[in-house]
Amino acid sequence: MVSDTARETYLLLGGEDIAPVFERNSGGRSPFLLVSDHFGSELPRRLGNLGLSEGELVRHIAWDIGIAGVATALSDRLDAHLIAQNYSRLVIDCNRPLHVEGSIPAISETTGVPGNEGLADSAIAARRREVFDPYHRRIGDAIDRRERSALPSVLVALHSFTPVYKGIARPWHVAALYRNGGPLPPLLLQALRAEGDLVVGDNEPYSVGEETDYTIPVHGEGRGLINTGIEIRQDLIADATGQRQWAERLARILLGIEATLRGKRLI
Ligand SMILES: [Zn+2]
Fold first, then answer.
1. What is the pLDDT of residues 8-23, one digit of tens each?
2. How far is the CA of 230 from the centre of ligand 1 (A)?
3. How far is residue 232's CA from residue 75's CA, in Å, rounded to a whole number?
4. Maximum distance among all alpha carbons in the chain?
5. Tell me, what's the pLDDT at 8?
6. What is the pLDDT of residues 206-218, one digit of tens each?
7. CA 161–ligand 1 middle distance (angstroms)
8. CA 81, CA 23: separation in Å to the nearest integer?
9. 162: CA distance to ligand 1 center in Å?
10. 38 alpha carbon to ligand 1 midpoint, in Å?
């Protein structure tokens, strides 16, 4: 029998919707735990197109263009567990604290999102309960499991950024984003600069903050893990070739960093 409470609960995902969490190589032995908050562009059927055109829904406002291909190939090359969010950041942004306006954005860059305006509390709660919570619960559980099996967790949050934001061009090809990441961000910056052909951002075009980030503060810093964000400019990974090349490059760099961390007994 369905209770009154259950009957009143607003359900977001139905039988035709995919699960929120995407995982790959969950038994991977790499110390790197890969996460991707803006991996997917799916919308629950119940939300329609959020009042946006198809053109808007494939733009960077909906997801991190290109990062899914990089993340999956990198996961395979490193034998690293990847945990990723299938639903668009326009449904709920899994890298924003729940209390900030950008959590369920009514405006993204300069585009209004009609389907996110004036939401009832029950609709907001459903997006948290059915999309945000399972993703972050899974990351937390994975870190717990790794601790129990003495597998180190070096958290790497994978993102991509638009080459032009609000009319301003961004020169960086790739960036490390961090706050209290331990030894990883400086090693990553050093390795990226040593590539010789890259403009490398050091906490640019973003930095990690309490109001603008959730994943690194909660799962990286909050758990005392060595961590970093990696941001790749979207025009470099727009096609499969670019995604494969960046996965190869990052795998090579991260394997070198793993050797350094092991040599210094930091993992
Ligand atoms: Zn992102």
1. 678 999 999 999 999 9
2. 9
3. 16
4. 65
5. 63
6. 889 989 999 999 9
7. 7
8. 7
9. 10
10. 5
